[in-house]
Amino acid sequence: MQHRVNANFAGTLTLLGYDLPQRRVQPDEGFPITLHWQAERTMGQNLIVFNHLLDQAAVQRGGADRVPQLYYTTLLWVPDEIVSDAYDVPVAADAPPGVYWLDVGLYPSEQPTFSLPLFASGQPLDRNSVRLGPLKVGGSPPGVTIPAATPQNPLNLPFAGQITLLGFNLNVERSTLNVQRLTLFWRADSPPPTDYTVFIHLLDPLGNLVAQFDSPPAAGAYPTSLWDPGEIIADEHLLHDLPPGRYTLQIGLYRPDTGERLAVAGSPDGVVKLMELEIK
Fold first, then answer.
1. Residue 222 belongs to a domain with what CATH number?
2. What whole-number distance in Å separates Cα of residue 35 and Cα of residue 13?
3. Contact 116, 71 (CB under 8 A)
Protein backbone atom coordinates (compact mmCIF):
# COMPACT_ATOMS: atom_id res chain seq x y z
CA MET A 1 0.00 0.00 0.00
CA GLN A 2 1.11 3.56 -0.69
CA HIS A 3 0.60 4.98 2.84
CA ARG A 4 0.57 3.02 6.10
CA VAL A 5 -1.75 4.10 8.91
CA ASN A 6 -2.39 1.16 11.32
CA ALA A 7 -5.30 2.94 13.01
CA ASN A 8 -7.24 0.59 15.31
CA PHE A 9 -10.94 1.39 15.77
CA ALA A 10 -12.27 0.04 19.09
CA GLY A 11 -10.35 -3.22 18.76
CA THR A 12 -12.73 -4.10 15.93
CA LEU A 13 -11.20 -2.94 12.66
CA THR A 14 -7.77 -1.63 11.74
CA LEU A 15 -7.20 0.74 8.85
CA LEU A 16 -3.88 -0.66 7.67
CA GLY A 17 -3.28 2.06 5.11
CA TYR A 18 -4.46 3.61 1.89
CA ASP A 19 -3.59 4.36 -1.72
CA LEU A 20 -4.09 7.90 -2.97
CA PRO A 21 -2.81 8.01 -6.56
CA GLN A 22 -4.20 11.47 -7.32
CA ARG A 23 -3.72 14.45 -5.02
CA ARG A 24 -5.06 17.25 -7.20
CA VAL A 25 -8.72 17.57 -8.09
CA GLN A 26 -11.17 20.21 -9.26
CA PRO A 27 -14.48 21.13 -7.58
CA ASP A 28 -17.46 19.06 -8.73
CA GLU A 29 -15.13 16.18 -9.65
CA GLY A 30 -13.88 13.19 -7.69
CA PHE A 31 -10.63 11.47 -6.81
CA PRO A 32 -9.83 7.77 -6.32
CA ILE A 33 -8.78 6.24 -3.03
CA THR A 34 -8.38 2.68 -1.74
CA LEU A 35 -8.72 1.89 1.97
CA HIS A 36 -7.17 -1.33 3.27
CA TRP A 37 -8.99 -2.71 6.32
CA GLN A 38 -8.31 -5.69 8.56
CA ALA A 39 -10.88 -7.32 10.84
CA GLU A 40 -9.62 -7.79 14.41
CA ARG A 41 -12.56 -9.95 15.53
CA THR A 42 -16.05 -11.01 14.56
CA MET A 43 -18.06 -7.80 14.66
CA GLY A 44 -21.70 -8.81 14.78
CA GLN A 45 -22.73 -5.43 13.43
CA ASN A 46 -22.91 -3.55 10.18
CA LEU A 47 -20.33 -0.75 10.27
CA ILE A 48 -20.52 2.23 7.95
CA VAL A 49 -17.37 4.02 6.80
CA PHE A 50 -17.62 7.80 6.84
CA ASN A 51 -15.23 9.76 4.67
CA HIS A 52 -15.59 13.51 4.88
CA LEU A 53 -13.54 15.84 2.72
CA LEU A 54 -12.60 18.76 4.99
CA ASP A 55 -11.17 22.14 4.07
CA GLN A 56 -8.69 24.05 6.23
CA ALA A 57 -11.54 25.32 8.41
CA ALA A 58 -12.74 21.70 8.92
CA VAL A 59 -15.87 22.38 6.84
CA GLN A 60 -17.07 19.32 4.92
CA ARG A 61 -16.80 19.86 1.16
CA GLY A 62 -17.40 16.35 -0.15
CA GLY A 63 -17.22 12.66 0.63
CA ALA A 64 -19.96 10.16 1.38
CA ASP A 65 -20.74 7.44 3.91
CA ARG A 66 -20.61 3.90 2.53
CA VAL A 67 -20.66 0.19 3.18
CA PRO A 68 -17.22 -1.23 2.24
CA GLN A 69 -17.24 -2.22 -1.44
CA LEU A 70 -20.88 -0.94 -1.40
CA TYR A 71 -22.20 -4.42 -0.56
CA TYR A 72 -19.77 -6.30 1.72
CA THR A 73 -21.23 -5.76 5.17
CA THR A 74 -18.83 -6.14 8.10
CA LEU A 75 -21.32 -8.70 9.52
CA LEU A 76 -19.65 -11.20 7.17
CA TRP A 77 -16.01 -10.39 7.93
CA VAL A 78 -13.93 -12.93 9.84
CA PRO A 79 -10.93 -12.24 12.12
CA ASP A 80 -7.72 -11.27 10.26
CA GLU A 81 -9.56 -10.86 6.97
CA ILE A 82 -8.20 -7.98 4.87
CA VAL A 83 -10.63 -6.03 2.71
CA SER A 84 -9.52 -3.42 0.17
CA ASP A 85 -12.20 -0.87 -0.64
CA ALA A 86 -11.59 1.26 -3.76
CA TYR A 87 -13.93 4.12 -4.64
CA ASP A 88 -14.10 7.73 -5.83
CA VAL A 89 -14.59 10.55 -3.32
CA PRO A 90 -16.90 13.27 -4.67
CA VAL A 91 -15.91 16.92 -4.28
CA ALA A 92 -18.55 19.61 -3.78
CA ALA A 93 -19.08 22.02 -6.67
CA ASP A 94 -18.65 25.03 -4.37
CA ALA A 95 -15.43 23.79 -2.71
CA PRO A 96 -13.05 26.78 -2.47
CA PRO A 97 -9.42 26.39 -3.59
CA GLY A 98 -6.97 25.12 -1.00
CA VAL A 99 -5.57 22.16 0.90
CA TYR A 100 -7.96 19.44 2.08
CA TRP A 101 -7.88 16.27 4.19
CA LEU A 102 -10.10 13.19 4.07
CA ASP A 103 -11.48 12.41 7.52
CA VAL A 104 -12.23 8.67 7.88
CA GLY A 105 -13.94 6.69 10.63
CA LEU A 106 -16.68 4.15 11.37
CA TYR A 107 -20.11 4.01 12.98
CA PRO A 108 -22.71 1.25 13.46
CA SER A 109 -25.57 1.49 10.97
CA GLU A 110 -28.09 1.52 13.81
CA GLN A 111 -26.19 4.29 15.69
CA PRO A 112 -25.26 6.94 13.12
CA THR A 113 -24.43 9.49 15.82
CA PHE A 114 -21.84 7.23 17.48
CA SER A 115 -18.36 6.86 15.97
CA LEU A 116 -15.96 4.11 17.01
CA PRO A 117 -13.06 5.53 19.03
CA LEU A 118 -9.46 4.96 18.08
CA PHE A 119 -7.53 2.58 20.33
CA ALA A 120 -3.85 2.54 21.29
CA SER A 121 -2.39 -0.26 23.43
CA GLY A 122 -5.93 -1.48 24.01
CA GLN A 123 -7.13 1.84 25.44
CA PRO A 124 -9.51 4.35 23.82
CA LEU A 125 -8.16 7.68 22.63
CA ASP A 126 -9.98 10.99 22.53
CA ARG A 127 -10.30 10.63 18.73
CA ASN A 128 -12.66 8.78 16.45
CA SER A 129 -11.19 9.38 12.99
CA VAL A 130 -7.98 9.64 11.00
CA ARG A 131 -7.14 12.26 8.42
CA LEU A 132 -5.71 11.13 5.11
CA GLY A 133 -3.97 13.32 2.56
CA PRO A 134 -3.37 16.18 2.02
CA LEU A 135 -4.98 16.98 -1.33
CA LYS A 136 -5.33 20.15 -3.34
CA VAL A 137 -8.77 21.18 -4.59
CA GLY A 138 -8.73 23.76 -7.35
CA GLY A 139 -5.80 26.13 -6.87
CA SER A 140 -3.43 27.06 -4.08
CA PRO A 141 -4.74 28.30 -0.70
CA PRO A 142 -5.38 32.05 -0.58
CA GLY A 143 -2.56 34.31 0.55
CA VAL A 144 0.30 31.81 0.13
CA THR A 145 1.39 32.23 -3.49
CA ILE A 146 2.34 35.50 -5.16
CA PRO A 147 2.45 36.39 -8.88
CA ALA A 148 6.09 37.55 -8.80
CA ALA A 149 8.95 37.94 -6.32
CA THR A 150 11.35 40.87 -5.95
CA PRO A 151 13.45 39.83 -2.94
CA GLN A 152 15.82 42.28 -1.28
CA ASN A 153 18.51 39.61 -1.60
CA PRO A 154 18.16 37.63 -4.87
CA LEU A 155 19.77 34.16 -5.02
CA ASN A 156 18.18 31.86 -7.64
CA LEU A 157 19.54 28.67 -6.04
CA PRO A 158 17.99 25.40 -7.33
CA PHE A 159 17.29 22.52 -4.94
CA ALA A 160 17.60 19.18 -6.78
CA GLY A 161 15.74 20.50 -9.82
CA GLN A 162 12.52 20.65 -7.79
CA ILE A 163 12.46 24.03 -6.02
CA THR A 164 14.41 27.26 -6.50
CA LEU A 165 15.15 29.70 -3.69
CA LEU A 166 14.66 32.98 -5.53
CA GLY A 167 15.93 35.07 -2.62
CA PHE A 168 14.99 36.41 0.79
CA ASN A 169 14.08 39.46 2.87
CA LEU A 170 15.15 40.02 6.47
CA ASN A 171 13.46 42.75 8.48
CA VAL A 172 13.41 43.71 12.15
CA GLU A 173 10.01 43.48 13.77
CA ARG A 174 8.84 46.91 14.97
CA SER A 175 7.71 45.57 18.33
CA THR A 176 11.13 44.34 19.46
CA LEU A 177 14.62 44.61 18.04
CA ASN A 178 15.64 41.01 18.73
CA VAL A 179 12.87 39.49 16.59
CA GLN A 180 13.64 39.18 12.90
CA ARG A 181 11.15 38.37 10.11
CA LEU A 182 12.75 36.19 7.47
CA THR A 183 10.81 35.81 4.21
CA LEU A 184 12.00 33.12 1.81
CA PHE A 185 10.76 33.18 -1.77
CA TRP A 186 10.43 29.70 -3.27
CA ARG A 187 9.49 28.70 -6.81
CA ALA A 188 8.36 25.21 -7.74
CA ASP A 189 10.23 23.98 -10.83
CA SER A 190 8.74 20.47 -10.92
CA PRO A 191 6.17 18.83 -8.64
CA PRO A 192 8.10 17.94 -5.43
CA PRO A 193 7.63 14.24 -4.61
CA THR A 194 7.27 14.76 -0.86
CA ASP A 195 6.64 17.36 1.84
CA TYR A 196 9.77 19.20 2.93
CA THR A 197 10.52 21.16 6.09
CA VAL A 198 12.62 24.34 6.19
CA PHE A 199 15.46 24.47 8.70
CA ILE A 200 16.92 27.80 9.80
CA HIS A 201 20.17 27.76 11.76
CA LEU A 202 22.00 30.59 13.46
CA LEU A 203 25.66 29.89 14.23
CA ASP A 204 28.00 31.85 16.47
CA PRO A 205 31.48 32.94 15.23
CA LEU A 206 32.90 29.56 16.36
CA GLY A 207 30.35 27.65 14.26
CA ASN A 208 28.24 26.53 17.21
CA LEU A 209 24.49 26.23 16.69
CA VAL A 210 22.86 28.92 18.84
CA ALA A 211 19.29 28.87 17.55
CA GLN A 212 17.21 26.69 15.24
CA PHE A 213 13.79 27.25 13.68
CA ASP A 214 12.22 24.36 11.75
CA SER A 215 8.80 24.45 10.11
CA PRO A 216 7.15 23.54 6.83
CA PRO A 217 6.93 26.39 4.30
CA ALA A 218 4.00 28.73 4.95
CA ALA A 219 3.66 27.17 8.43
CA GLY A 220 2.27 24.01 6.84
CA ALA A 221 -0.60 25.76 5.08
CA TYR A 222 0.65 24.59 1.68
CA PRO A 223 2.67 21.32 1.72
CA THR A 224 5.43 21.23 -0.90
CA SER A 225 4.13 18.02 -2.50
CA LEU A 226 1.12 20.03 -3.72
CA TRP A 227 3.14 22.83 -5.33
CA ASP A 228 2.74 23.13 -9.09
CA PRO A 229 5.51 24.22 -11.49
CA GLY A 230 5.81 27.99 -11.73
CA GLU A 231 4.11 28.77 -8.41
CA ILE A 232 5.96 31.25 -6.16
CA ILE A 233 5.50 30.88 -2.41
CA ALA A 234 6.23 33.66 0.10
CA ASP A 235 7.38 31.79 3.22
CA GLU A 236 7.65 33.84 6.45
CA HIS A 237 9.54 32.81 9.59
CA LEU A 238 9.95 34.75 12.85
CA LEU A 239 13.40 34.45 14.45
CA HIS A 240 12.85 35.23 18.12
CA ASP A 241 14.54 35.06 21.53
CA LEU A 242 17.93 35.84 20.02
CA PRO A 243 20.55 37.12 22.48
CA PRO A 244 22.85 39.93 21.34
CA GLY A 245 25.69 38.75 19.17
CA ARG A 246 26.91 38.10 15.66
CA TYR A 247 25.52 35.12 13.77
CA THR A 248 25.71 33.29 10.49
CA LEU A 249 22.21 32.70 9.11
CA GLN A 250 21.80 29.54 7.02
CA ILE A 251 18.85 27.55 5.73
CA GLY A 252 17.90 24.41 3.83
CA LEU A 253 15.17 21.85 3.19
CA TYR A 254 14.85 18.31 4.52
CA ARG A 255 12.46 15.37 4.63
CA PRO A 256 10.98 15.17 8.16
CA ASP A 257 10.46 11.39 7.89
CA THR A 258 14.13 10.62 7.17
CA GLY A 259 16.04 13.81 8.00
CA GLU A 260 17.60 13.72 4.52
CA ARG A 261 18.44 17.18 3.22
CA LEU A 262 17.53 18.25 -0.28
CA ALA A 263 20.64 18.87 -2.37
CA VAL A 264 21.31 22.47 -3.36
CA ALA A 265 23.66 23.83 -6.00
CA GLY A 266 27.17 24.49 -4.68
CA SER A 267 26.56 22.91 -1.27
CA PRO A 268 27.08 19.16 -0.79
CA ASP A 269 25.61 19.30 2.74
CA GLY A 270 22.36 20.96 1.60
CA VAL A 271 23.02 24.22 3.47
CA VAL A 272 22.63 27.73 2.06
CA LYS A 273 24.47 30.52 3.88
CA LEU A 274 22.26 33.58 3.62
CA MET A 275 24.18 36.31 5.48
CA GLU A 276 26.00 37.48 8.57
CA LEU A 277 23.58 38.88 11.11
CA GLU A 278 24.21 41.07 14.14
CA ILE A 279 21.71 41.32 17.01
CA LYS A 280 22.29 44.32 19.29
1. 2.70.50.60
2. 12
3. no
DSSP string for residues in 31-49: EEEEEEEEE-S---S-EEE
Whether 214 and 260 share a structural domain: yes
pLDDT digits (tens, 9 = 90+) for 191-219: 999 999 999 999 999 999 999 999 999 99
**Cβ atoms 31, 88 nearer than 8 A:** yes
Cα separation, 249 vs 173, in Å, equals 17
> Which amino acid belongs to residue 222?
Y
Q: How many domains are contained in the chain?
A: 2
Of 176-180, 205-209, 275-279, the least confident: 176-180
Q: Is the pTM of this model over 0.85?
A: yes
- How far, in Å, CA of 123 to CA of 260, rounded? 35
Co-location of 15 and 113 in the same domain? yes
Q: Between the CA atoms of 169, 172, 174 and 179, what dihedral angle is there, to the nearest 10 degrees? A: 120
Instruction: Sort 51 into a burial class: Cβ within 10 Å, 0-12 / 13-18 / 19+.
Output: buried
Q: What would the DSSP string read from start to end of 48-115? A: EEEEEEE-TT--EEEE--B-GGGT--GGG--TT-EEEEEEEEEB-TTPPSEEEEEEEEEEETT-TT--
Phi, psi (rounded to 5 degrees) for 104: -125, 135
